[in-house]
Amino acid sequence: MDVSPFFALLLIALLSLLLLFFSTGRNTSPPKGDGRSSLPPSPRSFPLLGHLPLLGSLPHRKLRTLAAAHGSVMLLRLGRVPTVVASSAAAAEEAMKTRDIAFSSRPRLLMAQRLLYGGRDVAFAPYGEYWRQARRVCVLHLLGPRRISSFRRAREQEVAALVARLRHAAGGVVNLSDLLVCYSKAIISRAAFGDGNYGLDGDEGGEKLRRVLADFMELLLAAPMREIAPWLGWVDTFTGLEAKTKRTFQAIDGLLERVIADHRSRRLGGRQVPADGEVDDHRDFVDVLLDVNEMDKQTGLRLDTDSIKAIMMDMFVGGTDTSSTVLGWAMAELMNHPHEMRKLQDEVRATIGSAGHVAEDHLDGMPYLKAVISETMRLHPPAPLLVPRETTEDTELLGTRGW
């Protein structure tokens, strides 16, 4: 049974207050006279939990406030994990461009390990040969221009279905957020799994699958207590996090097993088009990954079933919430700025002319639409915090080091 985390957090807070009498938070400043170690500045922290209580429910906003007070590079302690936060363009450029190799790996996050088959995906996999080869597969075979173009029919059909739903609901209250989430998930599902009607047992309208996927994305970003303070691991059981993680993983894993098994059985009926062939086919991501597994043995990469599942979840998670979030914010901003909305409507109507509907060929003639999307992503980035990185060697960032 899932238990509200309030009681566990209250217990932790009381314990922290008791320990506060015996231990005070310290304000870390760069040590003087030591040319080898210069720690970034750090705000005062709580015992055991470090700076976690400071982050709140909107950590990206709190981190912006902390950066304004302590600098664009600061040291936080998230439980037992020391974490350097970079929050300026200069710091990001140095970490992700100038010293990219040093900052190229990923930490072994507990939830990613449990939900993504022990780090067999791309987004959370540690830097190494497997990550390089898996990333090459995604860039060349899954996200290349020809592969993206092959799903044009699916995109246009789902857009038409979304417009039809909106017209049907015209005159009443419309939950546009839900419609946009269903739209983005439908496109990614067709690209990833094909046109097959895959779902969970007893899930007629797909609502159960949507809830499971929402739980999956929520859990993937969660910070279990056993990762922050191992001796408090029992809290995860008490709050129901352990049971929810197991239940969600089993549901997703069962679905992926059925999808892969169905694709393998269909492939026995005939030879598939090679992943790097010249024929414009409509294979989905599972077909492509199964083909790559047969073709790329000379590279040393072995895409076993768990690897295919993990990469599929990367594609699904990375393409659903981000797309629907940007679309939702774009519509909200346009409704709050009616002059800009009318200007965009005029551009769309002038571009499509007598066609009566928007096709992908029309997009090149809509510069204002592209500007609206770019401004929306600037104001409301769908992922304000990047996936954490882990250093592979001793390095520095804007003159700070020793962490």
UniProtKB/TrEMBL annotation:
Q: Which Pfam families match?
A: p450
Write out the GO MF terms: heme binding; iron ion binding; monooxygenase activity; oxidoreductase activity, acting on paired donors, with incorporation or reduction of molecular oxygen
Signal peptide annotation: 1-25
Keywords noted in UniProt: Iron, Metal-binding, Signal
SUPFAM superfamilies in the record: Cytochrome P450
Please verify whether the record's keywords include Metal-binding.
yes
Ion transport found in the keyword field: no
Cited InterPro entries: Cyt_P450, Cyt_P450_E_grp-I, Cyt_P450_sf
Instruction: Identify the PANTHER family for this entry.
Output: CYTOCHROME P450 71A2-LIKE, CYTOCHROME P450 FAMILY 71 PROTEIN
Q: Which family does it belong to?
A: Belongs to the cytochrome P450 family.
Give the protein name, as stated in the record. Answer: Cytochrome P450 71A1-like
Species name: Panicum miliaceum
